Amino acid sequence: MDPAVFKDLTQKAVKAALTGQWEEAVKLNQQILQQVPANTEALNRLARALVETNQALQAKQIYKKVLQIDKYNPIALKNLQRLELAQGNRHKAALLNSSQSFLEEPGKTKTTKLVRLGSIQTLAELSSGNSLEIVPKKRLITLHFKKNYIGSLPEDLSFRLIKLIKRGNQYTALVKAITKNDLTVFLQEIRQDSKNINIISFPSH
Question: What is the pTM of this model?
């Protein structure tokens, strides 16, 4: 495949996934694989898109194919295990990204990119919708998944939320989007202490 065409299709496939256009993501990754059948990144993207379009059986076969090419591929290992565990489980929402999880509410929610990201191996375990543990430090708020460090909130946002958490507020954090170099999270205030009644968690400016 021409390198320019490969790059263009890859960018379109990633964008389709990040915007929830899963059927389009299936088609784009299949186009790539027609020319480069052993591309594990495209295979993993295709499998994820198949899961999102309720084609879990086909997704399992794709993940197994990835492991035939790269038996230690962390994305395929993790997602194949999740699919195996989910067999017979009617709660498909555990595997899928629910857009309802990311409903914006002015002052109560915020989408932000993490800084000082953790290891590639740890980030590879993440999927959109994963819940993250919020850990306030002295000057930063760090986020963790299964006790592993994922990244930190920007300093200005950390500083603001540390003060509000100390005063009784509570927040949740969900993985919203993952790319090669960025991790975007969705923050939501779930409890506002009476001491903070006149303080907005996430001002619009």
Answer: 0.54
- Please give the structure tokens belonging to residue 103: 């409903």
Q: How far is CA 55 from CA 46, 95, 115, in A?
A: 11, 12, 34
Mean pLDDT throughout 75-83?
A: 87
Going by C-alpha positions, the residue among 121, 143, 131 that lies closest to residue 175 is 131
Encoded tokens for 129: 């919708």
For the chain, the domain total comes to 2
Please indicate, yes or no, whether residues 107 and 185 belong to a single structural domain of this protein: yes
Q: What are phi and psi of 132, to 5 degrees?
A: -115, 150
The confidence band for 93, taking pLDDT boundaries of 50, 70 and 90, is very low
- The reply to whether 88 and 103 lie within a common domain is no
Q: Worst-scoring range by mean pLDDT, 23-27, 84-88, 153-157, 184-188?
A: 84-88
- Of 49, 53, 57, 52, nearest in space to 32 by CA: 49
Q: Do residues 130 and 160 both lie within one domain?
A: yes
Residues 31 and 78 in one domain: yes
Check residue 39 and report its DSSP letter. Answer: -
